[in-house]
Amino acid sequence: MNLDMREPTIDTLGVLETAGLLRELTAGLIAADDFDEALARLVRIARDAVPDVTWCGFTALRAGEPAGVAASDPGLAELDDLRHGPESPAMSAIGRREMTVAPDLAVEERWPGWTARARGLGVRGVISAPVDVDEQAIGVINLYTDSAGTFTTRHQLTAMLLAEHAGLLLAAVRDRVKQAERAGELDESLLGEGVVGQAVGVIMTQRGCPAPEALDVLRNAASSLDIPLREVAERLVATVSRPREG
After folding, report:
1. Strands 55-62 and 65-71
2. What is the enclosing helix (H) or strand (E) of 140?
3. Shortest CA distance to 134 belongs to which of 46, 19, 35?
4. pLDDT over 60 (residue 160)
5. Could you say which DSSP state residue 150 is in?
6. Domain carrying residue 234
7. Domain ANTAR spans what residues (predicted)?
């Protein structure tokens, strides 16, 4: 009877812990300015929020090539770095497109070189879960523990949910960065283009503001008047170029 009463409580606590983790992860990653910062926040949050996880790392690949690592603790960064060799739990997870679990490295035989380094750094168990970001970037999140036999089925489920949620958030960060880069390229193009560049120069002179701010003024005017940006620019240039009467 008592056992039956306790089990729902344990399950509820597990759900609440996972919900809290995903909420914290969302808040942390959506505020990141770029992909690398998002990865750094991801590994710190996972380390601190997932029970029994001592360290966390992330291995990233872009276009199939190693593209850097993130580690919650710099001393363990080499374990996530593919330059130290392709044989690792991370590469197994990426290659097979499924979670890789090694609960006790003392008896692990799949990656002898990697395992020796990991044990030398105090790692006793690892879970590696693949993370799909977008068509160009993939990765794997690595959860480490300093106690053998610590990771359970619940940790594996948490790792799976963490990887899926992180993939969505990292994709959003990469998309936001790409849009900002495209906007910057567009701004450069507009500033160097004929009448729009002239109109921006007029606004800069009138308001004493930098070019990007002047371009925003022009865009806001176009939006308010519901007419094309180029037409607003032409009207402004025509107005200031018109000879004054008298």
Report:
1. antiparallel
2. strand 137-145
3. 35
4. yes
5. -
6. 192-241
7. 176-237
Residue 246 pLDDT:
47
Residues in contact with 59: Cβ distance below 8 Å, sequence separation at least 6, in sequence order: 66, 69, 80, 81, 82, 90, 91, 94, 139, 140, 142
Choose the final residue of a domain: 147, 176, 205. Answer: 176
To the question of pTM greater than 0.90 for the whole model, the response is: no
* The pair of three-digit structure tokens given for residue 55, joined into one six-digit string: 């360290």
Do the Cβ atoms of 30 and 165 come closer than 8 Å? no
Contact 191, 215 (CB under 8 A): yes
- For 51, phi then psi, to 5°, come to -55, 140
Read off the pLDDT of residues 211-237 as tens digits, 9 standing for 90 and up: 778 888 888 888 888 788 788 888 887
Residue recorded with tokens 């949910």: 161
The span from the first CA to the last CA of the chain, in angstroms, equals 100
The count of structural domains within the chain is: 2
- Region 195-219: mean pLDDT is 80
Beta carbons within 8 Å of 21's beta carbon, 6+ residues apart: 45, 46, 49, 50, 158, 162
Reply yes or no on whether the pLDDT at 112 is more than 90.
Answer: yes
Alpha helices in the chain (DSSP H): 2-30, 35-49, 89-96, 112-120, 153-191, 194-207, 211-225, 229-241
At residue 1 the predicted structure's pLDDT band, cuts being 50, 70 and 90, is very low
pLDDT-based confidence at residue 191 (cuts at 50, 70, 90): low
Which of 20, 19, 60 has the alpha carbon at shortest distance from 36?
60
Q: Are 133 and 205 contained in the same domain? A: no
